[in-house]
Amino acid sequence: MDRTWNNKAWFMVLPVLLLVAFSAVIPLMTVVNYSVQDTFGNNVFFWAGSEWFEEILHSDRFWEAMGRNLVFSAVILVIEIPLGIFIALNMPKKGWGVPVCLVLMALPLLIPWNVVGTIWQVFGRVDIGLLGYSLRSLGFDYNYVNDPFDAWVTVIVMDVWHWTSLVVLLCYAGLVSIPDAYYQAAKIDGASRWAIFRYIQLPKMNRVLLIAVLLRFMDSFMIYTEPFVVTGGGPGNTTTFLSIDLVKLAIGEFNLGEAAAMSIVYFLIIMLLSWVFYTVMTAYDAER
Amino acid sequence: MARIDCNHIRHAYGPHPKSDKDFALKEVHHAFEDGGAYALLGPSGCGKTTLLNIISGLLYPSHGELLFDGKDVTNLSTQERNIAQVFQFPVIYDTMTVYDNLAFPLRNRGVPEPDVDRKVRETLEMTGLADMAKKKARGLTADQKQKISLGRGLVRSDVNAILFDEPLTVIDPHMKWVLRSQLKQLHRRFGFTMVYVTHDQTEALTFAENVVVMYEGEIVQIGSPAELFERPKHTFVGYFIGSPGMNVMPVEVEGRSARLGSQTIELPGVPKAGTAGAIELGIRPEYVRLGASGMPVSIRKVEDIGRHKVVRASFEGRDIAAIVGEDEDIPADPRIAFDPAGINLYADSWRVEMGG
Amino acid sequence: MLELRNVTKTVGAAEHIRDVSLTLQHGSLNVLLGPTLSGKTSLMRLMAGLDVPTSGSVWFDGKDVTGVPVQKRNVAMVYQQFINYPAMTVYENIASPLRVAGVEQAKVDREVRNAAALLKLTPFLDRTPLSLSGGQQQRTALARAIVKNASLVLLDEPLANLDYKLREELRAELPRIFAATGTIFVYATTEPHEALLLGGNTATLSEGRITQFGPTIEVFRRPNDLVTAKTFADPPLNTIVLKKSGSSFLLDGGVSLPVPAELAGIADTSYTIGFQPHHLSFTRPSPSAVPVRAKVSVTEITGSESFVHLDFADVRWVMLEHGILAFEPDQTIEVFIDPRHIMVFDANGRSAAPPQTLAA
After folding, report:
1. Quick one: which of A195, B126, B228, C36 is 20 to 30 A from B98 by CA?
2. Domain A59-287: which topology?
């Protein structure tokens, strides 16, 4: 088309482009830059090529952390998605209960990450924490500082407590958009509670569920603050996720090149997995 | 199929109704005969949907009882009443095929699969959906979706009544004709008890043998289309049915004649009841003859709507509408005459019989 | 004057509007008539500037306005849904476009009161829209569109969500309201009946194409093609395919319709004959009327009229008669086709009658 009317529009988006360039593209390029060079921090760089990447991909430490991440995300999704749906289904659809439930649900989402970590760190302590002390008193041998299993349980419970609300709110939004006539028709057709869920509620929710799964996956795969605050990656390395390891590598060991290579691999993995989720779920959606 | 009795049913949406105006449904006492085709016709807020929801069990009435074939069902749930309902907007299970949609109500009730298959196939034939049985329901057009909704009701042999809540709202005009005539054929062949709620007079009159006209929470007239057209019991019925509605004008009655301004109109008979109070003469535009003789009018506007013309005129200072045939001409010095067969008399808005 | 020149709109692979050219005059009422998805809304969006055509151009008063966004075009729209500001009074709702334009208070007041009087809203000016009936809510939206004094007012099925009777009342008033302004009105509807009541001009739409544009009653009486005739018929148009042989249209079943004089010269081949339901009658309408025997399927009675659905050969017809005609289903009856009122279409669906020169 030979019209000039919309060329001005490009100028309008220029500030945003610049902002994105400074905040995302340039740091990313810096990371790429580090990942192919070796430096000791004195602004002297040596070309390293793909060396760092090879080292990362051959390191057990990386793959172990990666395994922990995958297990963690899987557990989170398996718990939070059904639990979120279940809570959303049981929330009131009208009356005074609606705002009460919504506020209760939104509360955990309003608390900063590190505060959540701190809360649970204290909550779970066996000497002064309500949870830790109670479990101890009940005869459980609970100690997230020494026991890897207890540490995992603590981190998972904390994440479920923090993020299930998001799934609930998304599902609830999907549920309330279903017209009443559907429920009336289902009653008339003699549908069971399960049939209503399976053939009306679930199909009507599947778009928001897609968003919920994607968000929860990406977020849980990038988990950092909470385990960092609560367990610091321990005991041993048992709760050292990729993100924690990355920080250890970069800040703790000042291994900038390797850390840069690792963050690029990390980034690519998240992209790839998100894309797989998205494609699988939209393909399923389209096929129906 | 069943006979449905509404025994003195009243309904208020608020918790403590005091006066009449708190009731969405003031009092309905009426029987829907087994196998009848009924329409509930009225403007929004007249209580027709409230009544339908009471019959279907989506709403429990504040007073009165509901009987199906003499059995009290007032407190039964929707499932237990065995009714079918078609809603304004198509309700379909969009992840299922057309076949599975129809099978759904049967499978929910644990009907053995061979019987399900037989009934579903029958219903597919009945509704003309047979060639799309294997299709996913979501890809279909609005009229096909409404047929699925209807089919889910027809498929059950134990259905007491089929209820329709403005089912043609989202259907294009051409498809309305097709669906309506199919519905009528289904009714004739299988004799379902059908109750059809609508604000559209054409739909109500063409569908039903008996039309129940409702206004402000009450039934104002029940009758065949012809009765409602020719002998509206209330001026509201005269106005609401017919397009344009009935011409209603205040008159003074003396014996067999009515005076309107300087004109005297011969009545078909002498009013039987007293003619005190506000007396009005009602005549439908179809019975107003426009020609060279009669009472003078001045024409304000002629609407040519193809198959006939609607003439809007001024008669003794009041608006009057007349219908003129497609090929008839409008005279230069227009005059009107009233066909005696179409004259009705109203005292305080209710029709007065005339005799002799 | 609004002019669309060879406008096409494609979205993805779907062609929503196909090569539409249309000229609308100031002070005219133009109906877009067509079924759901025929392109009425798409066309209005192009006229308003909410969408940009894929190809072709839009002109307003001799200026190319293609791509000029809606904010700069002085356009008003009324939708099927009643769209008002719920927290404002009816007065403020109507005044809102004037407030945005920074009109002085005295003039705002005058214009609002005028529009309210025109739409019979004067008693409700202090109420909020949600406390009004559907009809009054839509009147408020209409008043707002009118007070804006837009050069183009687009109404997208504005009466579809109203009760039948309210629709009838508002429909009767609309031409008068439209005539009171010098604006171009465009009114989309699916109902042929509504187009006829509104009068003005009508453009029939089918699958994104305008099949005919002209004075409403002309398009109704003399459609250029079969698609237009079908779009503009409610009850549906009756059709039958007949073979012309000399001075008659013939069907094997024994029907023989005389060829109208002005069509005497057309070739001897197959034609689709179309006629409106009220031109099929139970009593002989004229000596030249042709009797056919058809089987009754369903009879619908409205009190003033009867619609008799008939099966003839392999087609379904509807007969519209005044009064009450009750027939038993499956009964065979004799009905009459009036050759003075038939429309003849060739194999391509074009009218075989000499083209009408219509002043659009």
Report:
1. C36
2. MetI-like fold (1.10.3720)
**b/e sequence B229-262, b meaning 16+ C-beta within 10 Å:** bbebbbbbbbbbbbbbbbbbbebebeeeebebee
What does the pLDDT read at residue B324?
92
Q: pTM score, two decimals?
A: 0.83
The fold adopted by the segment(s) B4-235 is: Rossmann fold (3.40.50)
Q: Which domain holds residue C339?
A: 236-345
For residue range C105-138, list pLDDT tens digits in order. Answer: 999 999 899 889 888 889 999 998 888 888 889 8
Please report the residues numbered 257 through 276 in chain A whose beta carbons come closer than 8 angstroms to any beta carbon of chain B: none
C352 lies in a domain?
no
pLDDT digits 0-9 by tens, A216-232:
888 888 877 777 777 77
Instruction: Enumerate neighbours of C (3 or more CB pairs within 8 A).
Output: A, B
Query: Of C231, C262, C284, which residue constitutes the final position of a domain?
Result: C231
Report the DSSP beta bridge partners of residue B90: none
Of B83, B88, B93, the CB nearest to A188: B83
Tokens of B244: 């344009």
**B·C CB contacts under 8 A:** 103
Cα dist. C22→A107, C68, C172 in Å? 57, 18, 26
B54 reaches A (C-beta below 8 A): no
Q: Which of B88, B73, B101 is nearest to B7 (CA)?
A: B73
pLDDT more than 90, % of chain B: 44
Calpha distance B3→B329 (Å, rounded): 51
Q: Are C344 and C261 in contact (CB under 8 A)?
A: no
CB within 8 Å: C302 and B201: yes
Nearest CA in chain B to C285: B327
